[in-house]
Design goal:
The protein is of the alpha+beta class. It has a single domain, classed as Alpha-Beta Plaits, CATH 3.30.70. About 45% of the residues lie in helices and about 25% in strands. The chain contains three helices and three strands. Strands 1-3-2 form a three-stranded antiparallel beta sheet. Helix 1 packs across helix 3. The longest helix is centred in the first third of the chain and has 13 residues.
């Protein structure tokens, strides 16, 4: 990712976040997945709840298309 203007397109379960990441990659949209449970485990303490355990970020220029894909997947 060359553009550092990232926007959050999804917050939810790790399973759904990984699924969205796969769909975004299939649509040639780069993204970053942040897994709060994994981060907490690596640091040695408990993390977020399962309902908001992960967040997916995309470039600002891809946000609208990524949001449409996320909405179509999870609504």
């Amino acid at each position: 990712m060359t553009n550092l203007n990232l926007k959050s397109v999804y917050v939810g379960t790790t399973i759904n976040a990984n699924y969205l990441k796969s769909v975004l990659n299939d649509n040639e949209i780069d993204c970053i997945l942040r897994d709060f449970l994994q981060e907490g485990a690596h640091a040695g303490f408990g993390g977020a709840s399962f309902e908001d355990a992960a967040e997916v970020f995309v470039n600002e220029t891809d946000f609208e298309k990524a949001k449409e894909l996320a909405t179509s997947l999870f609504e």
